[in-house]
Amino acid sequence: MDEARTSHPIAPEDFRTALANQAAGVVVITTRVGGSLAGLTVTSFTSVSLAPPLVSFYVDGNSATLRLLRVAPFFAVNILAGHQADVARRFAAKGFDRFEPADFWYPSEISGLPLVKGSAARLVCSSRATGGGVLQIGDHLLLVGEVVSAEVDQESQPLLYRKGRFGHFVDHDVDPSGVPSGP
Ligand SMILES: Cc1cc2nc3c(=O)[nH]c(=O)nc-3n(C[C@H](O)[C@H](O)[C@H](O)COP(=O)(O)O)c2cc1C
């Protein structure tokens, strides 16, 4: 039974279709090394540990941003707000400078990392080695950071991504159609 499972992995299209059903929060990871800026849109972000305060995300091994992320002492996590689908698209698209015009971000006190204005929360993280560096898992690399500071916009709702579309969070109390009828 186990042998049959491992020798017949799911078809890639079926894998993608199944996972597309998971609604995920959207963040933009940014970093800076000297005068060079880099950043990409990510849904693989997650909290890892409370003490110490660790977070993680996975980056495709072919990502251009990895070149800086591998050597940068710090990176920022910008948790996008519900109205920031354009920012998510910007940091997933290629062929232009994602940081220009520079009117939608400002530099962090630590390391001058690009922080996205109006995002739901902005975390500055020091890069944490995972077993001597970034850890390769399949075709992605796991990056871990220790959160050293955070700015939060208490009023913000998060941006969500599901089945290739962006949306925003609706509280059950706000949307009665989503309220379970209860026991
Ligand atoms: C909603 C969304 C979520 C994404 N999540 C990830 C992710 O978790 N990891 C990843 O490596 N790429 C992810 N991507 C793709 C990258 O943002 C995209 O490939 C980007 O162009 C990579 O840029 P780079 O090659 O300059 O690093 C996501 C894209 C979108 C639109």
> What share of residues are in beta strands?
35-45%
CATH architecture type: Roll
Morphology: globular
According to CATH, the fold-level topology is Pnp Oxidase, Chain A
Can you identify the CATH superfamily? Electron Transport, Fmn-binding Protein, Chain A
CATH class: Mainly Beta
Radius of gyration: 18 Å
Number of helices: 4
Summarize it.
With 183 residues, this protein is mainly β.
Task: Provide an overview of this structure.
With 183 residues, the protein is mainly beta. It has a single domain, classed as Electron Transport, Fmn-binding Protein, Chain A (Pnp Oxidase, Chain A, Roll). 13% of the residues lie in helices and 39% in strands. The strands form 3 sheets. Strands 2, 3, 4, 5, 6, 9, 10 and 11 form an 8-stranded antiparallel beta sheet that branches. Strand 12 and strand 13 form a beta hairpin. The N and C termini lie far apart (39 Å). The structure holds flavin mononucleotide.
Keywords for this entry:
183 residues; mainly beta; Pnp Oxidase, Chain A; eight-stranded antiparallel beta sheet; three-stranded antiparallel beta sheet; 4 helices; binds flavin mononucleotide
